[in-house]
TrEMBL record:
Record's protein name: Histidine phosphatase family protein
UniProt-listed InterPro entries: His_Pase_superF_clade-1, His_PPase_superfam, Mito_Ser/Thr_phosphatase
Keyword Hydrolase belongs to the record: yes
Source taxon at top rank: Bacteria
UniProt KW Hydrolase keyword: yes
Keywords, ordered alphabetically: Hydrolase
Gene3D superfamilies in the record: Phosphoglycerate mutase-like
Pfam hit, one: His_Phos_1
CDD domains: HP_PGM_like
Recorded GO MF terms: hydrolase activity
Length: 166
């Protein structure tokens, strides 16, 4: 079974306000970015089976707007994604049902690019680009060669970085 992992950095958010970082909403530009990114991801992967979404406001808003152009069959808001590092997200992915073919994670930097770099099996130009971090409203698309439970360092191939023009 072919498996695909899509790691999304949320769209452009407003600066931190009185309510704190977790409650930052998307900026107007971010709302536009998120809608366009959903369509671009759909063109690459088609429908998504499961989405794991950080509980931060900007990620839940990004996810909602992504789904206007991308079919997502199931989703979970995972509060722990807000503070999670690459290894913690990897542990969540290793628990995915083995029958699941496409998973989307909507999270934060530097975790999304760090996890993509950790999983990627080749040191190429794309790896170099992602290792420096990814901009808002971008998605790292990886093809997996193992079941979810066996996902680990260098067990996936980063095939593309899907971006929305700034």
């Amino acid at each position: 079974m072919a498996r695909t992992l899509v790691l999304v950095r949320h769209a452009k958010a407003e600066p931190e306000g009185d309510l704190g970082d977790a409650m930052r909403p998307l900026a107007a530009k971010g709302r536009t970015q998120a809608g366009a990114l959903g369509e671009r991801i759909d063109a690459v992967t088609g429908a998504v089976d499961v989405a794991l979404v950080s509980g931060a406001l900007r990620t839940t808003e990004t996810f909602k707007l992504l789904t206007q152009g991308l079919t997502v069959r199931e989703h979970e808001i995972r509060e722990e994604l807000y503070q999670a590092g690459p290894r913690q997200v990897l542990a969540m992915l290793q628990e995915i049902d083995p029958r699941t073919s496409t998973v989307l994670v909507v999270g934060h930097e530097p975790t999304m690019s760090g996890l993509a770099s950790l999983l990627h099996d080749t040191r190429d130009d794309l790896a170099q680009q992602v290792s420096l971090g990814v901009p808002t409203a971008s998605a790292c698309v990886l093809d997996l060669s193992t079941p979810w439970a066996e996902l680990d360092r260098s067990t996936a191939h980063l095939t593309r970085l899907v971006r929305v023009a700034d």
